[in-house]
Amino acid sequence: MMLISRRRFISLAAVIVPLATVGGTTAWAAVCYDPAALPLGQKNRRRSLAYVEAAADPERRCMGCAFFTGAAGDSCGTCAMLNSIVNAGASCSSFTPRPK
Q: Is residue 71 part of a domain?
């Protein structure tokens, strides 16, 4: 019988559950980083900004945010607010639409 630690289970659930609950967003289901490997400060920053791997509202995806930097078509990029790699299909409370 294979047992996994509670910490590992929670880190896997943090990635899998949002992806499984948001239908039709499998194109944005790329894993850009290992949540378990993030430093505590980065985990706290993501929590404080309500960062989620799969945006519930397609209009609020990171790829459409002014703080997101990434090449068109890439599933990963960097966020100036989080100062870290993020999923292009993710979202957070600091979303600011790109100027048109």
A: yes
> How many domains in the chain?
1
Helix H or strand E segment including 85: strand 84-87
Residue 94 pLDDT > 50: yes
Domain, as residue range, for 77: 6-87
Asked whether residue 1 is assigned to any structural domain, the reply reads no
- Residue 98: inside a domain, yes or no? no
Terminal-to-terminal C-alpha distance of the chain:
55
Report field, pTM of the whole predicted structure over 0.70? no
- Identify the bridge partners of residue 52 per DSSP, sorted by sequence position: 91
Contact by Cβ (8 Å): 37, 9: no
- Are 39 and 67 in contact by the 8 Å Cβ rule? The answer is no
